[in-house]
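Researcher: Go.
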Amino acid sequence: MVELIPLTPWLIAMVVLMACSGFFSASEAALFYLRPRDLNAMESGSAAQKAAAKLLETPDRLLSAILFWNLVINIVYFTISSICSLRIEQIESWGQSGAVLFVIASLLAIIFFSEMMPKSVAVLKPKALATSLSLPLAIAVRAVDPVMPLLQWICLVSRRLIWPGFKPEPYLEIQDVQQAIEHSGADPELIEQEQAVLQNIVDLGNIRIDEWMRPRTQFVTYRPPVSLADMKKLPPSGYLLISELDSAEIERAIRLDNQFELPDKNIERLGEPVLYQPWCSSVADAFEKMSYRSKEVTVVVNEFGDTIGILTIEDILEAVFSYSPSRSLRLLDKNPITAVKENTWEISGMMSVRQLAKHLKIDLPATDCVTIGGVVQDEMQRLVEEGDYVHWGPLRMLVTEAPQRSNMLLRVTLDLTEGDSA
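Model: Structure:
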């Protein structure tokens, strides 16, 4: 080993080059693994987060710079490796076999320490690494700007000479859709499911957001600072809702099912801004805005600007892909309507008027209320109590359970005589 001491400066240089190559490999994986919602949050974050988001505004420039630096580093690394192997070969105790082993070890080292390990770590924590590496990476990218036009020209010439007919492959061909329809046409059950999904998509434009939202009584908000000790159990919605410092209005949300770990304190730092929608807008309109702005939680507000509920992207997807979507089933894990006997049902007060009319196949009187529970309270003009009776259109409704801040239960009977006359 004493014979290798003169090679120490070269070996140190190789370690430094491996670290530099690992830096660019980790930066590439972390930045390009960021999700749209991460980028939206980083655009209004710290200086380092803003720098990372700005780098991704021109992904071609970023990727070209990373590849350029990796190429330069690898050329220098293997040049030094060749010099060291030649000197090792001249050492009598090592010889040619020692030189070959050194070259193989050098190759394996740069593959593992500069490619595999950095990218694996970057994929696990892309946001944290993208934030910490963005500022030095921005300097490296800017340093390559003078040669960037030459690199782009070489790329363009190479593409026209080597792949003149190269075209990007479309995400989905029309023929693929036609084949899917042809293969599914022989399965009646699949056709029925497809029709149900299409009908649900059409219904999104007719469902008001306050009909499908999670009411204010069905979720809990946390005022910052938030710690793990404050969370008693996982929220049913799957999102940790963070309020403003000086009010109970929701400002941010954290999706918990994709968090690898949560800090013990100041969890609110992971939160992403929410979208706000009025109670009278449709679910389709909310979904369009959530998709365009890459938001997963919409806060529903009334005409005074107060929060009355939330709508998550999972709630909307359930409304589309459930065969018979129901808010009562989603929030309370209970069927909204259960047959008791002929023309008599037990109905959840959270069931919508539109859904009840569709289920019973009858026309109901016009009302501004969204739910059956709202209709009963509107008719009584007060908070209902157990035993209250309401005659509304063709329906006879008896309140069987009436918790003050929970879902009421009703015994509903259909008057066929009045229903036919209507």
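Model: DSSP finds 16 helices and 13 strands in the chain.
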